[in-house]
Amino acid sequence: MRFDIISVLPGLLESPFAHSILQRAQKKGIAEIHVHNLRDYSTHKQKSVDDYPYGGGSGMVMSIAPFAACIEHLKSEREYDEVIFLTPDGETLNQGIANQLSSKQNIILLCGHYKGIDQRVRDIYVTREISIGDYVLSGGELPAAVLVDSVVRLIPGVLSDETSALSDSFQDDMLDAPVYTRPADWNGHKVPDILLSGNEALISKWRFDQALERTQQRRPDLLQDKD
Ligand code: ADE
C-alpha cells in the first residue's frame, strides 16, 4: 500500500513514520509513505501556495494550482483509489473507515492550512474528506499521520499474530479489557487472581465481561450502534 502526502510542512512528517510499527511496515515493503512539498509545485518566485480570499475576509486560502500540479504529476505515474482531504468538516475517522482504507492500494492525502483550500481542489480532485475529531488543529499533517498509522497497522503482515489488530479496542465495537504484567503484587495492589489461575476459559470470560463493563461505562454509544 502506498500513501502520497502533500504538505507545506513536510518536516512535520519526518518523524511519525520513522519508528516502531510504521517503520517496520516500510522496511518489510508492505507500506510506502512519500511526503511531497507543495511548494515544489508552485510557479511563483517566492514559492507561495496561498492567496487572499475572494470576497474578502481574514486569513489566506491555499491555491488550486500547486495542488493540481502535484496531484496530476502523481496521477500520471499510477492510479489512485482515493484522494483524501484532512479537514475538521469531514466525516470523523473511526475503526470502520480505517478498515476500509486498509484494503486500498494507493491513496493521496492533502494537508490543509490557513483558512482552508480553494473549494475547487475539493470539487475536482477530492474523493473523501476526513476529520480526526471535533477540534481544530493548525494543519492537516498530524491528522494525516494519525490516519496513516490507523490504516497501516491493519495491513496483513504488519503486526505479528500476538499483537494482531483484530484484538484492538473498537475492532468489535468494544473497548479492551484491562491488562497487567509482573509483579503480581505491587505494594499491595494485586493483579486479579483469575489472570493467575491458568484457566483459559475463565480468563476469556473475565476479559469479555471487563470489556463489556468498560464499554458500558465509558462508551455506551458503541453498544447502542450495534443494533
Ligand atoms: N485539520 C485541522 N483540524 C483537523 C481535524 N480535526 N481533522 C482533520 N484535519 C484537520
UniProtKB/TrEMBL annotation:
A single GO BP term for this record reads: tRNA N1-guanine methylation
Q: Does the keyword Methyltransferase apply?
A: yes
Subcellular location as annotated: Cytoplasm
- Quote the CDD domains the UniProt record gives: TrmD-like
Q: Which residues bind S-adenosyl-L-methionine?
A: 112, 132-137
Q: What is its EC number?
A: 2.1.1.228
Where is this protein chiefly located? cytoplasm
Q: What class of enzyme is it?
A: transferase
Q: Which reaction does it catalyse?
A: guanosine(37) in tRNA + S-adenosyl-L-methionine = N(1)-methylguanosine(37) in tRNA + S-adenosyl-L-homocysteine + H(+)
Q: What role does it play?
A: Specifically methylates guanosine-37 in various tRNAs.
Under the subunit heading, UniProt states: Homodimer.
Name of protein? tRNA (guanine-N(1)-)-methyltransferase
Q: Which organism is it from?
A: Mucilaginibacter myungsuensis
Taxonomic lineage per UniProt? Bacteria, Pseudomonadati, Bacteroidota, Sphingobacteriia, Sphingobacteriales
